Amino acid sequence: MEEKFIYGMDINTYIEKALEKIRIVHPWATKDMFRENYSYAIEEENGKPIFVSYFTWSPGEVDREVRDYDAEKFIQSIVRDNEWWVEGKNEVKDIYAIPLPAGISISGWNLERYEFRTHILGGYSSEITVGDRSAGGSREFFIPPSFFEGTYDEFIKKYNEYIDSPFMLDQTLLEYAVGLKEFLGFASKG
């Protein structure tokens, strides 16, 4: 067995390892939330075992991709294939929208919306929308549960290190975020 198959030759072991990584941020995730049209295998090609993924477009229309990776990179590729789909299975429960003053700019775009959300299956995320008169977009960040273990100030520091720098919660936004501490569950921590 080659070094890259450090967890053996059962593909389910690698899928379980990917699920473990997804659960760091999404502890409510299950394998049945993975994208249905992806599947994975360990196959033999030219006398050597290889990692393979299959993407089914429709019955009879399947793409096969050899993923010539080591075990950790292959596991990470499974995470990338499925994390967004897992997130989509956890619907929004409640929203705290930071009241925004006019004129806040993020990388030349107007900040239109900055929300924190709780989800039905558990967990928190933030969604930030920026734009101009003709274009724009939103980014969603699911927040690792470990960020909630300390104080509110520690949470803000970890959160700002975690997300892309243009989307940080700077002091201006925090001044308008009356009630955010309570929404995120930090009021009872003192």
Q: What does this entry show, briefly?
A:
It contains five helices and eight strands, in the order αβββαβββββααα.
What features would you describe in this structure?
It is built from 5 helices and 8 strands. By secondary structure, it is an alpha+beta fold. The chain has 2 domains: 11-88, no CATH class; 92-189, no CATH class. The strands form 2 sheets. Strands 4, 5, 6, 7 and 8 form a 5-stranded antiparallel sheet that branches. It has a 3-stranded antiparallel sheet with strand order 1-2-3, with no helix packed on it. Strand 1 (38-45) and strand 2 form a beta hairpin. The radius of gyration is 20 Å and the shape is elongated.
Structural category is: alpha+beta
Number of helices: 5
Rg over alpha carbons = 20 Å
- In whole angstroms, the N-to-C terminal distance is 54 Å
SSE string:
HEEEHEEEEEHHH
Question: Can you give the mean pLDDT?
Answer: 91
Q: Give the helix level as a range of percent.
A: 25-40%
Shape from CA axes?
A: elongated
How would a crystallographer describe the biggest sheet?
Answer: 5 strands, antiparallel
